[in-house]
Fold this sequence. Notes:
This protein is α/β, with parallel strands linked by helices. The chain has a single domain, classed as UDP N-Acetylglucosamine Acyltransferase, domain 1 (3 Solenoid). Helices cover about 25% and strands about 20% of the residues. The protein has 4 helices and 15 strands. A 6-stranded mixed beta sheet has the order 3-6-9-12-14-15. Strands 1-4-7-10-13 form a 5-stranded parallel beta sheet. Strand 14 and strand 15 form a beta hairpin. Helix 1 packs antiparallel against helix 2. The longest helix has 17 residues. The protein is globular. The relative contact order is 0.09.
Amino acid sequence: MTIKSNNIFQDWRSNHHNAKGKAIMTFFRCASLIEQHLFLKILFFWYLLLYKFIIGWIFNIEISSKVNIGKGLKLVYGHGSVINGMANIGENCTLRHLTTIGCKILEDGSSGPSPIIGNNVDIGVNATILGDIRIGDHVVIGAGSVVTKDVESYCVIGGNPAVILKMIYRYPITECGEPDGSTPAN
Length: 186
């Protein structure tokens, strides 16, 4: 994963009224950058230890510095959330508190693959997303949902196990934020 300097600013824009979200994402982006290079890991090992302490003990959230998170992640509270280091989260996603994104433990006791989450996914409170699954773009995951199967793009899902509750129509949005009623966007 390559860190672009504007990712931090995009994260800040997404968390514009949330100082805690800004702080967490800034700590994460710096730790993620250090994690990518052996030289930086050796030079700044103390920062990685500090990151784990501050994020885990002070902010009560566990985001591995190895996870791949796209720009613009919005944290709504975020406390009690766990994101596995092998997960992939797309751009402009929203994550609420008590959310778990991780892998399943396989029969032999090893860890399986983690989820791949698309762009513009809104994850509700206390959602659990587990295993080798793909979640499409523009998906809303309801509070308390348990997602263990692939989810197509442009839908709302909820429940345990999660099922599609409705499809989201893909009309282009006008400048005032209303669908223009023309042909669906692709």
